[in-house]
Amino acid sequence: MTTPSFPVSAIVAAQRPHRKDAARNFDALLAAAREAFAENGADASLEDIARRAGVGIGTLYRNFPTRRALFESVYADEVDALCQAAVEVADREPWEALTAWLDRFAGYMVTKRAVREALEGESEILGACRDSMYAAGGPLFERAQQAGEARPDMDFGDLLRMVAGISATQFSDDEQRDRVLAIALDGVRTRR
Amino acid sequence: MTTPSFPVSAIVAAQRPHRKDAARNFDALLAAAREAFAENGADASLEDIARRAGVGIGTLYRNFPTRRALFESVYADEVDALCQAAVEVADREPWEALTAWLDRFAGYMVTKRAVREALEGESEILGACRDSMYAAGGPLFERAQQAGEARPDMDFGDLLRMVAGISATQFSDDEQRDRVLAIALDGVRTRR
DNA sequence: ACTCTAACGGAGGCACCCCTCCGGTTCAAC
DNA sequence: GTTGAACCGGAGGGGTGCCTCCGTTAGAGT
């Protein structure tokens, strides 16, 4: 949005320890945390995460002094992937590109309900994630607007929250989720 | 939906104790629980609820043996109010009646995020709540469909989840929430 | 091979929550 | 007014989570 976008996961990579065993533990912790956050939401037990990683609780705290620090690290590269997806989609027709990216975005939200909370939180890296996301998806939306495909009386933030809200909801099955999302996106599309 | 609708709060009223002090505590507990659930979601601390009600934890457990029992009782009359609103709105134009009711529904979702979870849970009274809600709102939607105002390729369950999802999301302000909701509902409306 | 420093793991103190149980209290019926 | 049944409050035992601290271990540089 305002900030230039760059791979937020680089910030995390910089914190990866140099020693071999330490690096291994660092990775195991991230993997375990990713699992745990997906299963139990953002307030998963830290002790459980250490257990899953086969690591002492002390090691967890040494690498990630706060729950938030761990949380941020976990999602940095998911956000990167999302940004990457925006690039891959850029050469399609405006509306098609936008919806393709939003589908991808929605796909994340289903399992990673925690990402959603991150969209609001205030912090160095989480802010960078949000900025990256806006920088990646925003232009897709604006292009659709300029092509006259998306309604002009809303902004990208509106759209993102709409999609986030819908995809975070529990549906009876994936079909229902897709159906509802498509209907809502119909409301975003310009009438002709 | 399938079950006939009747005031679910009557089920709760039947469990209110007869003795004066007991009845007072029962009411205080419900009020405290309503507050706590609104603030902290469905997993608010039971001990905190008892504290707020100025009552021992034992009293809470005597009246509501499980967290779920308390939870159900709290929301029964909110659901009743929602059903009542459907009646009040029934004499307006089909589309206008539907959106008016959905606005009311959305209003609940903002604060009472717990109601949303109730929409899925399985249990005697929670099931009755869901049925009541469908019985109240469903006809409004079908009327709009028959009037050619709402698209025919979706059902009331789709609509409810869409609105629930959007309103449960955190927005920067109420205006944004209303704006996004209106856009999504535009997708529900038949094109002309 | 040796060292010494960075990293390890988990015990332990604290806080919170759940739920049961029981001695004391209060209502209401007679 | 008396009385007994219904109701009360909260102490207490068990569980889980958070975070710190420190004796032990193992990698990296020489």
Automatic annotation (TrEMBL), chains A, B:
Domain (HTH tetR-type) ranges: 23-82
Pfam annotation, one family: TetR_C_43
DNA-binding region extent: 45-64
Keyword vocabulary terms for this entry: DNA-binding, Transcription, Transcription regulation
GO molecular function: DNA-binding transcription factor activity; transcription cis-regulatory region binding
InterPro entries on file: Homeodomain-like_sf, HTH-type_TetR-like_transc_reg, HTH_TetR, Tet_transcr_reg_TetR-rel_C_sf, TetR_SbtR-like_C
PANTHER family xrefs: HTH-TYPE TRANSCRIPTIONAL REGULATOR BETI, HTH-TYPE TRANSCRIPTIONAL REGULATOR RUTR
Protein name from the UniProt record: TetR family transcriptional regulator
